[in-house]
Each structure stands twice: as C-alpha cells, then as structure tokens.
Predict the 3D structure of the following.
Amino acid sequence: MALIPTWYSASTKQIAEKALQRGVLKYPGLCYIQDSKSIAWVTIDNTLEYVKGDKQITDVKCIGANLMFFSGDKLLFSYDISMTDEDKGHIIEEVKKTIGLDNYVKSSELSTLLDNIIGNLEDKSTVVDYINSLSYNKLSDVPIVNLIGTLTVPVKISSLDDGIYKVKGQCIIGGNNTTVQSSADDVLYLVSHDADTSSTTITKMQGKSITLYFIQQDGEYTTDRYVTEKWINEQNFANADSVKEYVSNIIEETVLNVLDDHIDAALERKLGGIDSKDLTNIFQGGN
C-alpha cells in the first residue's frame, strides 16, 4: 500500500512540534507554518525538519519508490512511499494540487489545520502555558487545579482563588513571604480567603509534612505545622503519669530531707548541754 504524504498547516512551530509528540503529525507528513511562512516535513525517524521560506519547493518528482521534493535542481527532501507504477502519476498530481507550488495552501478546506487538533495558543505566550489551560483545567468545576511555575513566572499562591491547587515547579507563598520555593514533585495547596478580615490561609501538603501559612492584610504572616505521633514520641515529651511520679518522688525526697534537718537541729538544741555519759544513759534507760 502506498504511503501518501498528508498535508497540514499550523499557526506556529510549537503547535507542529506538539502535534508530532502526540502522533497527529507523522511520517510521511508536511506542514505549513503560518507565522514563519516555512515548511516542516517529518522524517522517517519521526523528527521535524524545516525548509526556510514558503516558495522553496518548485517541483515534485517520483523516482523509483521515492517521492522527491526539489528547489530548482536541489533535492530538499524525499519520502519512500513504496507504490506501484500506476499510482505514481496520480499521487504526484494530487500532491501538487494539494500543496500548490505557486500558492501554498493556507485554508482549512484543503488542509488539516493542526490548531483544530492541538488547540490554538490563544493569548498564551508558550505551549506550556497553553497546555496548562487545556483538558482537565478546562472543566467547569475542577476539584484540583494543575499549575506549573517557572523561575521567570512563579505561581503566587496567595493570589489564587479559593480552592485546591496542585503546583509543580516554582512558586511564592505571598504576602511578605517572597521566597521562591521550588519542587520537582507535585505539591498540594489549599487556599482560603477571609473576606471579613482580608486575610488568607494557605495549607501546604507535601510528602509527610503539612504547613500552614496565615497571611494578614498588611502582608505579615505566621506559620504553623501539623506534626505526627512519631515526631512527638521522638521529642521525649513527658506524659501525665511520668510527671505525677516525678513530682511525687521530688516531694517525698524534699520533705524527708527537710524533716531530717529539722530533727537534727531540734535534738542539737535539746541535747547540746548534756555530756556523752549522760546521753548514753538516757538512750540506755539508765538513771
């Protein structure tokens, strides 16, 4: 079966490259890039090569099993389309008619516009920004919003609406906390704004830690965190029973020591003027 090149058009190179990644644009395929007015073609290794300018292809020939694209006498690129002889003439005419050697096709009527498949970038500056706004995030009531921050444009958590966000890359908590945090893994943030106090509460959940940020209207903030039972046990905190036992022992030792001191002092006062012989007679019951 002959492999007939498919003709596409896309608004930007980013759209064409994303289409290639998704398997929409594939070998053998040609794509007209509207903003740069250039031609992209897919190699057999599934990579994109670019032909500068939209007037470079001047002729199409079929030699053997190869469909060849020329600029004058120079071969720009070719496809191994493995076809029968009776197919060749028809395919050449179809290819010439489709791409138009004197006026490259730009209408969706004669080509498959990749923007319709990949999606127009709209007002997004990069494909990453656009992809972030697609699919799951386009739902009308998204339970968790996916965001990706960069060094140049980190996600400012406090500026987000109330909700749950899964953030990857760079972000800033907000308020006076302007430190750029970075994570290669997804981090969950719960954002809640209090209209009465104009304060914001942010709960950050990452791995085994949960950190809370309380941001006031003036930007001042405090932090707190949840701790685990294991962490508390590792701090060697005293429980109620151990504290009770410790206090009881301290009181008992202290009282006994005080009593001993008082008894010794009292005996010293009472018996201080008695000589040792009389003292011996007292304890022996002598007269």
